[in-house]
Structure formats: C-alpha cells, structure tokens
Amino acid sequence: MSSATIMTLDELIEEFDFLGDWEARCDFLIDLGFELPKLPDEAKIEPNRVHGCQSNVWLIASVQSDHSPTTVEFLANSDAMIVNGLIAVLMAIYNGKTPEEIIQIDVEKIFHRLELDRHLSPQRRNGLFGMVQRVREIAVQTAISEA
C-alpha cells in the first residue's frame, strides 16, 4: 500500500498559520482532501469502517517491517470532503511513525494548535477522535505483535 503523506505536520502548521482565518483553513482542508490517495473499492468494507463518524470513513493500515524500526502507514477515505481533509491531517501526524511514536503523540495538543478543537462541530470532532482511536488501536496491536 502506498499512502505517501501529503505534507509534514510542520508544513501543515506553517500553512495554517499563514492562512489565518478558519474559512481559509477550511478551504485548505478540502483541497488537501482532494489530494488524498484513493482507497481501493475492495477496502471499503465494514471491518475497515470507522465508527463514530457522521460520514462514512474507511481506514486501513500497512505495517512497514522490512526495515528497522517498524513503521505504520495509514490510508483512509471518506464520502465527505472536509473529512478527507481531516484524514490528510491525520496522515501528516501519524504516517511513517513507529507504533511507539504513534501511541506517544499528544494529538489533542496538535488539534488545539491547528484550532480544530474550536472550529469543528461536535459531530466532526467525535468522528476525528474515532479515527484517532482506530489509528492508536492499530499501533498498540502492532507493538504487541512485535514484542
């Protein structure tokens, strides 16, 4: 699975700072969503669906263990444009990290820095944290299987 990260977290933060207001940031998130690699249709099955999202979201992971340390790559898509942008944010945060790094990331601090905690509706925040929970579960399972 090739799920190249669209941009780094530092680049994302820099772009959000440059854009300033939420409307411009929201447009940017939607643009990021259009750049997401497409999830194959055969991956859009119930076991890959993220629950807690008001939109349909499917997420899969690939463990890259052919080098040391083992890293995890995620690929996800939604049927909602803004959610695809939020997926791009999660990819910038988590892709290419080790399971241990993923577990240690203070994602709430990052969301606060990007002001996602202030501007997303409660339903979108719940969905975002549903995706975060899935990513963390995959990281924990990967770490356990490596032990």
CATH class, named Alpha Beta
Major beta sheet summary: 2 strands, antiparallel
Q: Which structural class do the helices and strands define?
A: mainly alpha
The residue fraction in helices comes out at 55-70%
CATH architecture: Alpha-Beta Complex
The general outline is globular
Q: How many E strands?
A: 2
Question: How are strands sequenced across the largest beta sheet?
Answer: 1-2
Contiguous helical run count: 7
**What value does the average pLDDT take?**
90
Q: Detail the poorly predicted runs.
A: none
Query: How far do the termini sit from each other?
Result: 24 Å
Order of helices and strands: HHEEHHHHH
According to CATH, the fold-level topology is Sufe protein. Chain: A
Number of domains: 1
Using only C-alpha atoms, the radius of gyration works out to 15 Å
Strand content: 5-15%
How would you describe this structure in keywords?
2 strands, 147 residues, Sufe protein. Chain: A
